[in-house]
Amino acid sequence: MSTKVGFELVKNLAIETPTKIIMVVSDGLGGFAHPDTGKTELETAKTPNLDSLANQGRVGRTVPVAHGITPGSGPGHLGLFGYDPLSYDIGRGILETLGIDMEVRAGDIAARGNFCTVDDNGIIVDRRAGRIPSSLCKELCEKLSQIKPHGFELMIQPGREHRFALILRGNGASDQITASDPQREGLKAEDITALTPDAERTAQAMQGFVSQARELLRESHPANMLLLRGFSKQPEIPLFPEIYKMRSAAIASYPMYRGLAKLIGMDVIPTGETIEDEINSVRTHWRDFDFFFVHYKTTDSAGEDGDFDRKVQAIETLDKAIIKLLDLEPDVLVVAGDHSTPAILAAHSWHPVPLLIRSKWGGSGYTNEFSEQACAVGEIGTIPATSVMPLALANAFKLAKYGA
Fold it and tell me: What mean pLDDT is predicted for residues 38-44?
């Protein structure tokens, strides 16, 4: 079933009810067994609360895009929200710019930027420049704002740590250009080139920007170079609250996820930096919304850094915090991940992602733990990520019967 047909079906069946759903997305949740112990990060962590929730509900696994396909965070989240990532290919740039509240006009081209570290030969040795402080990112963005691409207006704003967002504005601006970020270390930044003849002028402007940035950043160790990807315009996309007939809130500390939520029509709630802050934000706004998306980034950051122990600690932090959500007595609590980020790989991967759905009507007692092994044989099974929202709605009695 295509996403368009699926959305139309769910939109026709969705009904407004007083029930409430919380979806906690632990970014990069899935892992892979450590060679010394044979246990994943989730299986290593002490998670009494998540294990109890698994016992109270049902577990399974999600496939974010398709079997064998490694997803980015954008496609991973779109799938969980019910959008087929193959039908809605949204560039990372537009998500970053919306997430930090940059003004995006019709025709603007947005891009996601990373400050990175290169050696004397221009080889990338750290794509994230050691996750520099956000204050340093702001200083470097101010320095880059001196660059004026010929024929275009350029706006740059800092995000979190090594991340920044960029908008290119002007007649003829095109998003049909390649990225400079090879998305792996040990390589040089790639030249930005045009994918269509009409994009040639844009590609030349952006490659000129990168060349000037290289000179400006040369002495700014560890952030002595930048990488660009996700060139994109703002797309047309069905709105989450209209499809599912729910007042919907997003609570996320990182800009990209706020941007994605804003793009699909969720209300973005101000919050703090920690999972405890985010859960307190849910509690503060509990009466105002029917659906809460809560994003937890730390699991993914540790996995991408190849730090197995830190990812274990991040999972344990989530476990201690999540118990506070139960005081609110949500009708449905979903714990999911947008993709797997095994620390052993220090990168996103294609592995299925653990899933937990707890509700009064979902069944219980099938397992005593929340882990990759338990989820692999869980009652939910291994399902497309796009099936999570219909399951959550059904458990909240928000879908009418189909047919006579």
Answer: 97
Whether 82 and 384 have beta carbons less than 8 Å apart is answered as no
pTM for this predicted structure: 0.84
Q: Which residues of the chain form CATH 3.30.70?
A: 95-232
Q: How many DSSP H helices and E strands does the chain contain?
A: 14, 13
Q: Contact at 8 Å (CB) between 59 and 355?
A: yes
SS3 content of the chain, % helix, strand, coil (to 5): 35, 20, 45
Q: Which of 41, 32, 43 is nearest to 374 (CA)?
A: 43
CATH code linked to domain 3-88+237-395: 3.40.720.10
> Tell me, what's the pLDDT at 217?
94
Give me the amino acid identity at 150: H
Is the domain defined by 95-232 classed in CATH 3.30.1490? no
Query: What pLDDT sits at residue 5?
Result: 52
Q: What is the mean pLDDT of residues 313-335?
A: 97
- Angle at which helix 3-13 crosses helix 388-395, to 10 degrees, equals 10
Residue type, 114: N
CA distance 4 to 383: 19
Q: Report the C-alpha dihedral over residues 180, 185, 188, 190, rounded to 10 degrees.
A: -20
Q: Strand pairing partners for 335? A: 24, 356
Report the sign of the C-alpha dihedral through residues 319, 253, 349, 385, in that order: positive
| DSSP states of 48-105 | HHHHHHHHHSEEEEEESSSTTPPP-HHHHHHHHTT--TTT----HHHHHHHHTT----
Looking at the chain, which residues constitute the CATH 3.40.720.10 domain(s)?
3-88+237-395
Residue with tokens 């750290």: 126
Q: How far apart (Å, rounded) are the C-alpha atoms in residues 66 and 74? A: 14
Q: Does pLDDT of 372 surpass 70? A: yes
Q: What is the mean pLDDT of the chain?
A: 93
